[in-house]
Design a protein that fits this description.
The structure is a single chain. The protein has one domain (38-225): Peptide Methionine Sulfoxide Reductase, Chain A (2-Layer Sandwich), CATH 3.30.1060. The protein has eight helices and seven strands, in the order H-E-H-E-H-E-H-E-E-E-H-E-H-H-H. It has helices at 14-19, 50-57, 80-83, 105-116, 142-157, 186-189, 194-210, 222-225; strands at 41-47, 63-71, 91-98, 124-125, 128-129, 135-138, 176-178. Strand 4 (124-125) and strand 5 (128-129) form a beta hairpin. Helix 2 (50-57) packs across helix 4 and helix 2 (50-57) runs parallel beside helix 7. It starts with 13 loop residues before the first helix and ends in a 5-residue tail after the last helix.
């Protein structure tokens, strides 16, 4: 099912609708945090429409780039129209590049589970349905895979959510393919687009309210970071 644009009769109706659109859950950080090594690390995360995931991570201190794209399939099918059919193996994903001395991989995951999406929804997220909108972490190393698995077990044991987490973690070092240029920085470029207002802007506001220590006002956009391949 293609993502759709929610058309409302009046712009004034958008604000109250958005207020109830996204429920964030305050959760504990991972019990085991990896020690920072080097100055740059990447995480590849899928949790529904990549517009909102990208927008969230662009507002986190220590993130140097957040690129919308596709992961889980091959290069030939890494195109929006094909991925939208739900048969390519790809998920809409975001590649987050960050400085682990400023923000840890554990904190990246904490935001992912807490405010960026609902990890208990299977093959859907909000109004969007299909395997291309699944919840999945694509670990870039065995260490990341272990951190993700341990964290999911921790959250499920603590019953942090009303339902079990369905996030996949088994695809190690999947190739990430940047999405088309018009998808990059979409929420920043189109803040009043109804889908953004209702489905994605609340995620960003939840980040600011729940994790002020991670928040930065000025988003790091793909344009400012030097492009989708960085």
């Amino acid at each position: 099912m293609r993502k759709f644009v929610m058309v409302l009769a009046a712009i004034g109706a958008l604000a109250p609708a958005a207020a109830n659109a996204e429920a964030a859950v305050k959760i504990a950080a991972p019990a085991a945090q990896s020690v920072a090594e080097g100055t740059s690390e990447t995480a590849v995360l899928a949790g529904g429409c990549f517009w909102g995931i990208q927008a969230v991570y662009q507002h986190i201190k220590g993130v140097t780039n957040a690129v919308s794209g596709y992961a889980g399939g091959d290069a030939k099918s890494a195109h929006y129209q094909m991925v939208g059919m739900g048969t390519t193996g790809h998920a809409e994903a975001v590649k987050v590049t960050f400085d682990p001395r400023v923000v840890s991989y554990g904190q990246i995951l904490q935001v992912f589970f807490s405010v960026a999406h609902d990890p208990t929804q299977l093959n859907r997220q909000g109004p969007d349905t299909g395997p291309q909108y699944r919840s999945e972490i694509f670990p870039q190393s065995e260490a990341q895979a272990k951190t993700a698995r341990d964290y999911i077990a921790q959250l499920d044991t603590a019953k942090s959510f009303k339902k079990p987490i369905v996030t996949k973690t088994g695809t190690i070092s999947a190739t990430f393919f940047p999405a088309e240029d018009y998808h990059q920085d979409y929420a920043t470029k189109h803040p009043w687009q109804p889908y953004i207002v209702i489905s994605d802007a609340p995620k960003v506001q939840n980040l600011k309210a729940m994790y002020p220590e991670l928040w930065r006002d000025e988003p790091v956009t793909v344009a400012k970071a030097g492009g989708a391949t960085n």
